[in-house]
């Protein structure tokens, strides 16, 4: 995993703290992958990171918080893929790119997807208001607005709602795929997105 860029104006202490946080994060993900999230022990994570037990809790109050950090980093990579498309890219092309990016990320750590879903429910993130949407959600909402202006999307519902609906459908599809991977995840996600477009398209 690439090191984080150093923030302008950060002190040596800031950089050391960020380096420690990153080592703990990487160690935690490694232990989650090896032992499973539920059975992963904080002492094993701390030992692998070369820090004290208390240092883990200073940076991550719970194991769930490591998953949220993992999800934020995943989100940033998906945003980068979507941002590479021009703003006037057709909606179907945008969703194809979204599905491809999600499948790449979620297949890499498929065992952690159910744990992330459970952590999000515990945190109440499933009720996140539009103003607190993830970077992917905010970018998609803006692209949906542009698509609606071009006549590609219906306007009966707010674009934030449509975005949340799509992301929930894609995440649910991934959970179902884990239980029965009868097809490639990318195919399952693309078919889900196609069904979404069937209902949301302005051409209906």
UniProtKB/TrEMBL annotation:
Pfam family, one: TetR_N
Record-annotated DNA-binding residue ranges: 41-60
Keyword list, A-Z: DNA-binding, Transcription, Transcription regulation
Domain HTH tetR-type: 18-78
One Gene Ontology MF term: transcription cis-regulatory region binding
Alphabetized InterPro entries for the sequence: Homeodomain-like_sf, HTH-type_TetR-like_transc_reg, HTH_TetR
Keyword Protein transport: no
Protein name in UniProt: HTH tetR-type domain-containing protein
């Amino acid at each position: 995993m690439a090191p984080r860029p150093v923030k302008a104006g950060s002190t040596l202490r800031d950089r050391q703290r960020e380096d420690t946080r990153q080592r703990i994060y990487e160690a935690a993900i490694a232990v989650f992958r090896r032992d499973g999230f539920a059975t992963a022990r904080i002492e094993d994570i701390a030992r692998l990171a070369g820090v004290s037990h208390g240092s883990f809790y200073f940076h991550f109050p719970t194991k769930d918080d490591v998953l949220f950090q993992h999800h934020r980093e995943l989100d940033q990579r998906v945003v980068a893929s979507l941002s590479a498309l021009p703003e006037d890219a057709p909606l179907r092309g945008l969703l194809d790119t979204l599905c491809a990016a999600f499948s790449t990320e979620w297949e890499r750590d498929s065992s952690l997807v159910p744990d992330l879903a459970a952590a999000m429910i515990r945190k109440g993130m499933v009720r996140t208001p539009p103003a607190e949407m993830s970077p992917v959600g905010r970018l998609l909402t803006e692209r949906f607005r542009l698509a609606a202006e071009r006549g590609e999307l219906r306007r009966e519902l707010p674009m934030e709602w449509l975005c949340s609906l799509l992301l929930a459908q894609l995440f649910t599809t991934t959970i179902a795929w884990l239980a029965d991977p009868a097809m490639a995840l990318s195919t399952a996600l693309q078919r889900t997105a196609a069904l979404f477009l069937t209902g949301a398209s302005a051409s209906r």
